[in-house]
Automatic annotation (TrEMBL), chain A:
SUPFAM superfamilies tied to this protein: S-adenosyl-L-methionine-dependent methyltransferases (SSF53335)
Compartments (UniProt record): Cytoplasm
Keyword line: Cytoplasm, Methyltransferase, Ribonucleoprotein, Ribosomal protein, S-adenosyl-L-methionine, Transferase
InterPro entries according to UniProt: Ribosomal_L11_MeTrfase_PrmA, Ribosomal_PrmA_MeTrfase, SAM-dependent_MTases_sf
Family note: Belongs to the methyltransferase superfamily. PrmA family.
Name of the protein described by the UniProt record: Ribosomal protein L11 methyltransferase
Recorded superkingdom: Bacteria
Example GO molecular function: protein-lysine N-methyltransferase activity
TrEMBL record, chain B:
CDD domains according to UniProt: Ribosomal_L11 (cd00349)
Name of the protein in its database record: Large ribosomal subunit protein uL11
Similarity annotation: Belongs to the universal ribosomal protein uL11 family.
Purpose of the protein: Forms part of the ribosomal stalk which helps the ribosome interact with GTP-bound translation factors.
Keyword S-adenosyl-L-methionine attributed: no
SUPFAM superfamilies, A to Z: Ribosomal L11/L12e N-terminal domain, Ribosomal protein L11, C-terminal domain
Source species of the chain: Oceanicella actignis
Database matches in InterPro entries: Ribosomal_uL11 (IPR000911), Ribosomal_uL11_bac-typ (IPR006519), Ribosomal_uL11_C (IPR020783), Ribosomal_uL11_C_sf (IPR036769), Ribosomal_uL11_CS (IPR020785), Ribosomal_uL11_N (IPR020784), Ribosomal_uL11_N_sf (IPR036796)
GO cellular component entries: cytosolic large ribosomal subunit
Length: 289, 142
């Protein structure tokens, strides 16, 4: 089937979504519409429309001009195997001794590494992001120095990748929770696929006050890959549930927020052990005093 | 997890029939979104909907290539044509009638679409559906 695309760029999220709505109101509506941030820090957004027949370039360019967007580039997309193309792009992610890969790359996982099979699907935590990779690198560094946690908590677990990495490493008890029920189901499925379910208790919870989390406390290691503001709010609970000498690995923190988060945890009895910066994201590795 | 949204994709996908052909393949594939995982999840989520019914779907995708999606109810125009048992609306609405539906059917459509409509109550939702019927040349009786 022939596909035509009309693509443009425009400054700002609001104008991009507004332009998308105008495109949908044209007499020939697109079969799909994409509004996406251009990931280069420029603040530009891409608006792309897909059609089964060649769209009217004049109508599109009038919309673009009125919105202050660049003229649309209208092109015919050649038929290709998009599934295969995506598989080629979703390459395994390496973080120290860990390799996170999709099922399509299972045969490529090196035998001398800890391989975790995670699909890029309905939960965050595929490894293709600095926050997840930062946590895995922190865990790898801890293991290098002989650190071992009998009990680990993964708060806001998404795919469950961090908890699974700890379970694969130490075969200790891991409690993994998320506020999102889809993430909880995804994490359970991932634990099964990776043969780690016997070590993991996975459930839905908001924060650390759920019975599931409290029952296994104190923890030798607590992961929380969330965002800076909720991380600050969780500081008292994480301090209470982290064993003396235990570690907290916090992520989802923009570089410029790192001091703000670290300060809160210092005030709750933690000392910084390591900062890992990957792109715009910082992972904090803290030791409970 | 620290979800950072990259953007959204809007698609109209037939219930239970998502596959990698256009527009899903190119729209998701050009952005590196896992097409087969989306198709699997979408088809599972639409099992309770009549197969083939067009479902407006909004996919939100994140920096690590994971995604979530929301499925809206099929468009009023689709539901009206189905209720009137016609293939298309009138080419000259207001002058030629393409078909007829009953007030009861309009109410049923309004109830089905209530969660996606900007309406406070069922009467307001029915007015929206009646407007759609009028613009399609579908007459409402009873």
């Amino acid at each position: 089937m022939t596909t035509w695309t009309a693509l443009t760029t425009i400054k700002g999220e609001g104008p991009a979504y507004a332009l998308g709505e105008r495109i949908e109101e044209l007499p020939v509506a697109p079969t799909a519409l994409a509004v996406l941030e251009v990931e280069d820090g420029s603040g530009m957004w891409e608006v792309g429309a897909y059609y089964t027949e060649k769209p009217d370039p004049v109508a599109l360019d009038l919309l673009a001009a009125a919105a202050g967007a660049a003229p649309f580039a209208v092109t015919r997309l050649e038929d290709r195997d998009w599934v295969e193309q995506v598989r080629r792009e979703l390459t395994p992610v390496e973080a120290g001794r860990f390799v996170v890969h999709g099922a399509h790359d299972a045969h490529r996982a090196p035998r001398n590494r800890i391989a975790l099979q995670i699909e890029a699907a309905m939960a965050f935590g595929t490894g293709h992001h600095g926050t997840t990779r930062g946590c895995l690198l922190a865990l790898d560094g801890l293991a290098d120095r002989g650190f071992r946690a009998a009990r680990t908590a993964d708060i806001g677990c998404g795919t469950g990748v961090l908890g699974m990495a700890a379970a694969a490493l130490w075969r200790g008890c891991v409690v993994a929770t998320d506020i999102d029920p889809v993430a909880v189901e995804t994490a359970r499925a991932n634990a099964r696929v990776n043969g780690l379910a016997p070590w993991m208790r996975i459930g839905r919870a908001n924060g650390l006050r759920a019975d599931l989390v409290r029952e296994a406390a104190p923890y030798g290691l607590i992961f929380a890959n969330i965002l800076a503001r909720p991380l600050r709010g969780l500081a008292p609970d994480i301090a209470r549930m982290c064993a003396p000498g235990g570690r907290a690995v916090l992520s989802g923190i923009l570089n410029e927020q790192a001091d703000w988060v670290e300060g809160m945890y210092r005030a709750h009895g933690f000392a910084r052990e390591r900062r890992i910066r990957l792109g715009e994201w910082t992972t904090l590795q803290l030791r409970r005093l | 997890m620290a979800k950072k949204i990259v953007g959204t994709l809007k698609l109209q996908v037939p219930a239970g029939k998502a596959n990698p052909s256009p527009p899903i393949g190119p729209a998701l594939g050009q952005r590196g979104i896992n097409i087969m995982e989306f198709c699997k999840a979408f088809n599972a989520a639409t099992q309770g909907i009549e197969p083939g019914a067009p479902c407006p779907t909004i996919i939100t995708y994140y920096q690590d290539k994971s995604f979530t999606f929301v499925i809206k109810t099929p468009p009023a125009s689709y539901l009206l044509k189905k209720a009137a048992k016609v293939q298309s609306g009138s080419k000259t609405p207001g002058r030629a009638t393409a078909g007829t539906v009953t007030v009861k059917q309009v109410r049923e459509i309004a109830e089905a679409k209530m969660k996606d409509l900007n309406a406070n109550d069922i009467e307001a939702a029915m007015k929206i559906i009646l407007g759609s019927a009028r613009s399609m040349g579908i007459e409402v009786k009873g």
